[in-house]
């Protein structure tokens, strides 16, 4: 587990996001669970990942599938017990893998005892844990903020005649980070889990937490771009407030007080890379901040190269970028970037495996799993039920892991899994039997990454290339990728070819010939 360099273990590492409810069901109730994960760790060890991030595991009424937490220091009974989690951390550790949990500090569940108390009276002990405001002079919500369903972000609480804020669902009241007691609560929560051997947290809505103290109206949105805002408004006053950085400076001190230091990986949903860079602080805030401009970049040489170049020019020296292309909200890259085309999916994996910093794969990326068109009557995500716009319905990327070709893709023995499985012809067992499969390619890529880039944030240098080609050096590697449907020539010498994806590369007096959507890694 020690990468021998004295550098943080996540430098050059690959993490695997595991949506617990959808990965492996051990008790036949149709929902994935912690014991299901323990039973399938062999897959992750064989694949060669360095760590796993578990989607929410804490008790929750599941209005937003665990992102509405009703107890921060326990395990959701449907997913297992604290003892199961301890066992999972130990079993993963024996295989050289660390475990990160998902922490949700922007809001709790309305069923959390803090909120139940807060709602009971204006003078209750926990009243100021949440954001309350009087109705506007005309009697409506206090301002124009909208929640993630497009409805007002305020719900009137009959008990006290004030509105409470919810940037997500009404069942997810926003916490009030102007209240010092909220800071103390979360510092205790961090210690509780770090003491148990949790390697770190993915921090949900890390760009949230603080809201404008004056609750000013949000300005209109100028363009239709999920990165810039939704439902016609720019979230200028309800997200990404400067005060949030103080929280991460405090948390970083806590994380660094452990051996090894614990990892803070933020879901920093901001559109500008300068804003993203701020979450690294002076290397004294988050160690990793998710890059959504990369997620939404077009799958073209120019589009991807530009985001990578700009990201690296903005992040503080010595920091570690993080690249991901799929998750439980934005969908799967094999669909969004690659339109289900296997060769493009392989090329995307090659790129993800050779960028400097940390790479996060989403479960199923390794077999090229696709978004699944879940019919409206089977959709389970309340926040995006029936939505076709923007991110669309999020269930499409939360369907069961496809282990084999049996009923329910080998995910559960239940007659019906909680969400329908996609096309089980694409599955782990079949791809394990085929050394030419995407799964084997992914494994080879991760092994190559570990050998060549493990323990370092490889210095990155973009190489000159013509239209459609993206060429770069990362650490000691040269990567050439043809992100176009036409054959292309890279006019140079790349050294020894270690791995190729797509058509076999050719050498000619003019340079290296790359087939459509093909790439190579050389040294
Ligand atoms: C994050 C999660 C998303 C959730 C939201 C509210 O964006 O990734 O799934 O609905 O936060 O917690
Ligand atoms: Ca189960």
Write the layout of secondary structure elements.
Blueprint (H helix, E strand, L loop, with lengths): L13 E5 L15 H6 L1 H7 L3 E4 L27 H13 L3 E6 L9 H8 L11 E2 L20 E4 L4 E4 L14 H16 L4 E4 L40 H13 L6 E4 L6 H6 L9 E2 L2 H4 L5 H14 L7 E3 L8 H4 L5 H11 L5 E5 L65 H5 L5 H16 L6 E4 L5 E6 L2 E6 L5 E3 L6 E5 L4 E3 L2 E4 L4 E4 L1
Parallel strand pairs: 1-2, 1-11, 2-3, 3-7, 7-8, 8-9, 10-11
Antiparallel strand pairs: 4-6, 5-6, 12-13, 13-14, 14-19, 15-18, 16-19, 17-18
Bound molecules: alpha-D-glucopyranose and calcium ion.
Question: What would a concise description of this structure say?
Answer:
By secondary structure, the protein is α/β, with parallel strands linked by helices.
Describe the structure.
Helices cover 24% and strands 15% of the residues. The protein has helices at residues 34-39, 41-47, 82-94, 113-120, 180-195, 244-256, 273-278, 292-295, 301-314, 333-336, 342-352, 428-432, 438-453, and strands at 14-18, 51-54, 98-103, 132-133, 154-157, 162-165, 200-203, 263-266, 288-289, 322-324, 358-362, 460-463, 469-474, 477-482, 488-490, 497-501, 506-508, 511-514, 519-522. The mean pLDDT is 96. It has 523 residues and is an alpha/beta fold. The strands form four sheets. An eight-stranded parallel sheet has the order 9-8-7-3-2-1-11-10. A five-stranded antiparallel sheet has the order 12-13-14-19-16. The chain has a three-stranded antiparallel sheet with strand order 4-6-5, with no helix packed on it. The two termini are 25 Å apart. It has 13 helices and 19 strands. The protein is globular, with a radius of gyration of 23 Å. The site of alpha-D-glucopyranose has 10 residues, from loops.
